């Protein structure tokens, strides 16, 4: 079964906004690929002064907690990265 990308992105966006509230971290982009049984979610975050690895780890851990509690996405792999971690797709 195909993954409804727009629904997943909307759900992840709302959860990321909750995680980064009251921090200087901001959301740059979200990508979702795969199937319902094997979703791949990439979240790109940044700060005004370059995001650190510790900040990415914080967002990843907190977001995973929310995703696991919500359980509407099913099985997923989560990657949280800086926008510089984005790879070009050809």
Helix share bin? 25-40%
What is the β-strand count? 3
As for the number of domains, it is: 1
Relevant CATH superfamily? RimP-like superfamily, N-terminal
Strand order of the largest sheet: 1-2-3
Poorly predicted parts? none
State the end-to-end CA separation: 25 Å
The sequence of SSEs as H and E is HEEHE
CATH fold naming: GMP Synthetase, Chain A, domain 3
Describe this structure in words.
It is a single chain. This protein has 90 residues and is α+β, with helices and mostly antiparallel strands. The protein has a single domain (5-85), classed as GMP Synthetase, Chain A, domain 3 (2-Layer Sandwich). The chain contains 2 helices and 3 strands. It has helices at 5-20, 53-70, and strands at 26-35, 38-46, 76-81. The chain has a 3-stranded mixed β-sheet. Strand 2 (38-46), helix 2 and strand 3 form a beta-alpha-beta unit. Helix 1 (5-20) crosses helix 2 (53-70). The model has no long low-confidence stretch (mean pLDDT 89).
How do you describe this structure in short?
With 90 residues, the protein is α+β, with helices and mostly antiparallel strands. The chain has two helices and three strands; from the N terminus they run αββαβ.
Keywords summarizing the entry:
3 strands; globular; alpha+beta; GMP Synthetase, Chain A, domain 3
Write the layout of secondary structure elements.
Elements: H1 5-20, E1 26-35, E2 38-46, H2 53-70, E3 76-81
Parallel strand pairs: 2-3
Antiparallel strand pairs: 1-2
Helix pairs in contact: 1-2
